[in-house]
Amino acid sequence: MTLFTQQATKHYAEQPWFVLNAASGFTLCPSAHPAVSHYYSFMVDINVEATYAVPDGCVDLIFDTNEESASAAICGTTLEASDALFKPEHRYFGVRFKLGMLPEFLNVRANEVINQTIDLGDTTITAHALIETMASCPSFAKRVEFFETILSKAASFEPSALTQFSLQQLIQHQGNMRMESLEQLTGYSLRTIQRQFKQDIGLPPKVFGRIIRCQAALHSLHKLNGVSYSDLAFSLGFSDQPHFLREFKKLVSTTPLAYQDTIRASGYNDKISLVANISQDNKGSIPTSKNFHQDDKS
């Protein structure tokens, strides 16, 4: 019996530069799998010099599906805006895992990839077959179905109940939460909470809260017109507007004003194409997953 109530926690985990630098559109599909937040796909515009990854707390498995140079990498959350090193005119397919969760066949835990990008071939002997099949799938839908077929036979690492509860609280408060409050809510010492959280997520709760504040700011800028930066800074717990502006620029690579100008000019929300969860009932010619697990010896 768990000590904590497990509730659905909404974590936006946005990567806005992936959308902004997409050549024609950004496709996103939610997943019903307990370890996966969503799938996405986009082609990098030919004129793009750099596509930044911003801190989101999550781990992504990203496939470059260009058949001539297909590859895949496990990408941990960054700690500030960092160049994702995407190639112009290449199509990427991504799997964004839920906080602290990864399928066991990747042979890596979330706490091992913070601020790192690891070649898939360095973690699993089946990487080549997985990459080759993903690149040969004829559509986004087929790639989603193929990966979900693999996941259907895979166990997943997941955070402890204590960490899941702490995550819920931090997200609910948009990262604006004193760590001592977690002691009062859980009955555990702050030292125990921090040790377990870092073991599960790879970051101290305070650093994760900083990431959540950044993500909350992005979400507000995407959804609200005429937002006051001073009001936004206050609502997220910043001591003053200049502190918020410095933090935003470090984590997102630009100022809130310049960012809002960019998303308005690009038609940000219109570039995102949300598709319904793709059913597993009719997989057609999707390859079997049996060759993609190391414990299958046949």
UniProtKB/TrEMBL annotation:
SUPFAM superfamilies: Homeodomain-like. GO terms for molecular function: DNA-binding transcription factor activity; sequence-specific DNA binding. Residues 160-262 form the HTH araC/xylS-type domain. It holds the Pfam family DUF6597. It comes from the Bacteria. The keyword Cell membrane does not apply. PANTHER family: HTH-TYPE TRANSCRIPTIONAL ACTIVATOR RHAS-RELATED. This is AraC family transcriptional regulator. The lineage of its organism: Bacteria, Pseudomonadati, Pseudomonadota, Gammaproteobacteria, Oceanospirillales.
